[in-house]
Amino acid sequence: MSRRASGDVFLRYLNSGRRPSFRLLVRFVLFMVIPGILAQVSSVVMQYIDASMVGHLGSLEAASVGLVSSSLWLIGGMGICINIGHYVQISQLIGAGQYRLARNLACQSYITSLIFSSIIVVIAWNIGSFLPYWLGGDENICHDASRYFRLYCLSVPFMQFNMLSTGILQGAGSMKIPGVLNILRCFLNVFFNFIFIFDTSTYSVAGYHVAVPGMGLGVAGAAVGTVVAELCISVLMLVCVFCFNQKLKLVRNENFFWHSSYFKRAVRLALPIGFEHCLICFAMVVSVMIVAHLGSASVAAHSFAITAESFCYMAAYGISSSASAMIGQTVGAQRRDMAVNLAWTITSIGVLMVSFAAVLMYIAAPFMMRLLTPDPVIQEYGTGVLRIVAWAEPLFAASIVVSGILRGAGDTLVPSVTNCLCMWLIRLPLSFWLAWELGLDGVWVAMSIQLCITGTLLLIRLRNCRWLNSTRKEDLACEGI
């Protein structure tokens, strides 16, 4: 990528009032999104390896993880909302040239994230013993599911720090560093999982026998490995934010202020996202409960297929995260004209990339499932549902990317309401009905219909441009300093 297309050059274009050519705008977008995409794709690859490790312990072990996976999305993502409320404002302040206030708000955001995530851990730990039974899991998988859930929840504070740091660094125009660290996190996760899941084993390499130490913790080891990996990366992220980033690194004798107005706006931005996340994850839990009545094989296939499907849409999440930062900077710089062109450019790139990945997933679905599990029944179920959802992936990508664009502009209510209503009024009723008619395939048909409708509605919202009015000039005022 050309040096002309860098985060600092993009900020200079915003502040100078110049409009980049279409070619340069595409370069800016690719420069910003590619590190995030690589981080998400590497995350998917590592999830494959991670899920494969658990899958090779046995189908019951795989089902125990699959049973609580949706609940972990709920627990792990509850802190995301308050994080977004802060780093969207930080990217807007950086776009407006308010670097000192951005540093102050960054410190404030970590304090808030730590308090919020600690509360989540306490609650999750106390319900962990009962959750698998509430979800309707078989007795033979509930013990492992409970242990995995409780241990995994210990990673929540570190996970929140990593997500927050990624958003803050992207908002400051630094895309490569969080991308590299998130890739490293994935490798560390697999490494530590390998150590904690399996017993000590001896392998033959080039005629030499090498002993690889292991703790032999089984399913619980997968959770412990995640905790250790997240801890390591959170420390590195904090160092990068406060020591190496030129716009955010701490300045000697610069006083810290608690800005209640920015905290209140963070809460206003976060509340719709928080309700959306809770309602959607609760809907996912209900969906797992529907699948649970179809048997352990269906639960395992459902869980593995979700992991495999992420091969497509995780790239869209990487683009969405970068889009929030770029649109936040553009709105902060009061460049409405450029924000519209940028939004459609990012959306087009996201849809094209995911469409290509969907074609590959449709063709390679049997191979992808074989990598995750040796069970032929689970492979057959998983292959079928992946080929069903592949048709919905382009509009799913549109919904993910457009949601990131709208949130970067401070418009969090409309995408959240749209996602929730489509989930509860379309996917769940259809899943309940079609599950009895078509089994697991019916659940994924319902999912595909909902994803297409959600993507279409959010594209309509992007087109009417009302989202540009979500951030006011007074929201960027430098008060109290």
Task: Please explain how this structure is put together.
Helix 2 (22-55) packs parallel to helix 13 and helix 8 (156-171) packs parallel to helix 12 (296-332). This protein starts with 6 loop residues before the first helix and ends in a 17-residue tail after the last helix. The longest helix is centred in the middle third of the chain and has 37 residues, at 296-332. It has 481 residues and is mainly alpha-helical. 79% of the residues lie in helices and 3% in strands. It has 17 helices and 2 strands. Strands 1-2 form a two-stranded antiparallel sheet. It is globular, with a radius of gyration of 22 Å. The protein has one domain. A hairpin with a 2-residue loop joins strand 1 and strand 2.
Keywords:
single chain, 481 residues, mainly alpha, two-stranded antiparallel sheet, 3% strand
In short:
The protein has 481 residues and is mainly alpha-helical.
Which helices and strands occur, and which strands form pairs?
Blueprint: H1 7-16, H2 22-55, H3 59-77, H4 80-95, H5 99-127, H6 131-134, H7 139-152, H8 156-171, H9 176-197, E1 199-205, E2 208-215, H10 219-244, H11 260-292, H12 296-332, H13 336-372, H14 376-389, H15 393-408, H16 413-438, H17 440-464
Antiparallel strand pairs: 1-2
Helix pairs in contact: 2-9, 2-12, 2-13, 3-7, 3-11, 3-12, 4-5, 4-8, 4-11, 4-12, 5-8, 7-10, 8-9, 8-10, 8-12, 9-10, 11-16, 12-13, 12-14, 12-15, 13-14, 13-15, 14-17, 15-17, 16-17
